[in-house]
Amino acid sequence: KGPRRGGEGQTLKGKKVKSININIRLQQTTLILLKKKAVKLGFPYQTLAASILHRYVTGHIIISNT
């Protein structure tokens, strides 16, 4: 079964959370590397980017200040 599409994503306290579209500027090399990682994992690159952002804002990824 492939990734879910259609505007609804993960739940927040039992309620469906609607997905929204965003625009973001990235360095070209960042996007190329993201797409390569996504292919290796078997995900669309947008899904991988959304997953990384979600994990960061929920505290599952910590970015060091060093």
UniProtKB/TrEMBL annotation:
Name this protein carries in UniProt: Antitoxin
Organism: Candidatus Collierbacteria bacterium CG17_big_fil_post_rev_8_21_14_2_50_45_7
Protein origin, superkingdom: Bacteria
